Amino acid sequence: LRWQDELRHILRPYQEVLRSYFDEEKLRTAIAWMAAQSGPPPTEPLTGPFVLWHPLYHDGGVARPKGGSGMLTQALRRHIEAHGGEVHTSAPVEEILVRNGQSRGVTINGHTYTSRAVCSGTHAKETFDHLLPAAYRPDEADGLRIGNGFGAMLRLALDEPVTYRACPEPEDDARVGLQLLCRDMTQLRAAYGDHLAGRPAEDPPIIAMTFSAVDDTLAPPRGEVLWLWGQYFPYELSGADTWPQIADAVADNLIDQFERYAPGTRESIVGQLFQHPAWIEKHLGLYRGNVMHLEMSLDQMFSARPTFGTSNYEGPVDDLFLTGASTHPGGGIMGASGRNAAGVILNSL
Sorting pLDDT into bands at 50, 70 and 90, what band is 177? Predict the structure, then answer.
């Protein structure tokens, strides 16, 4: 295709890009539901590139640490320590030290630690509004769009493997792959409509994940872990409801929706944790429950993430570097922003 045609696809909402390529509604829906994982709805302009999630997975494959995602951080810690570094936990940073326009360390629990450079991997709002001295806060931080949350995760422990209606044998591949449980584009758009109205999606699309099917360290023999990610769920609710008041009902609805595909799952549940937007903010420090830190729209992507002046992994003062979901290419357990930031830091030092 000519570059003009490609540009037109990039400028369109991803549902329109899919309509131009595919006739089958089920195929369009599967790709659109994966595209929606970044947050923007299928009707938002300039989201065409999000349909590339599917081909990227096919091209590069999908990997997951044995023992769960937390094992990735443990491996990183061992790697740092093997090279003479130290990792400190339960040590929240109180301030980034700035001397003559250069970052020179951090303050933790009243103690000062100096350094040649500082790399902040936390939320851009936390870095700009709370860790940096106010005199060095970039004006562009006023325009950061965090949004109103968009997803929630229900983590379930089961005493037997999931059995899907369409694949009645537990050994079938259905438990190995991600299950994109979205009937059609209408369901996806309706869920976002509920979100705009400030209420949890009544009929949420779901991604079901049973990683214990490929990793026997996650559950006891014959047991199962089942993660249900659903959208759309706003952080700020309309009316007088609060998340602590409605969390149980919303979690029950997610299970009900999943049972359309895997009846009998509820009877197998022996434990659960519902990570709704308010929980995500309280326990994970992600403002307004946005797992991507900032809205993943074109005005906050590429050279504009988190702001135009801080998009090359370099902060608003010298020797302060940025990484994490607030920087390009956004959220996800892929390490891309960390790798990119490391290259910038090494070149600088």
Answer: confident
pLDDT at residue 1 tops 70: no
pLDDT for the residue 220: 96
In sequence order, the 6+-apart residues with CB closer than 8 A to the CB of 336 are 329
Is pTM beyond 0.85? Reply is yes
| 54 compared with 138, residue with greater pLDDT | 138
In eight-state DSSP terms, residue 304 is G
Tokens of residue 322, six digits: 């940025």
Distance between CA atoms of 232 and 182, rounded to whole angstroms?
12
Amino acid at 81: E
State the residue for tokens 């599917």: 54
* Residue 83, CA distances (Å) to 74, 78, 79 in order: 14, 9, 7
Contacts of 69 (CB under 8 A, 6+ apart): 333
From the list 218, 222, 204, the residue with the least C-alpha distance to 261 is 204
DSSP at 137: -
Instruction: Quick: pLDDT tens for 331-342.
Output: 888 889 999 999
Is 258:204 a contact under the CB 8 Å cutoff? no
CA distance 258 to 201: 14
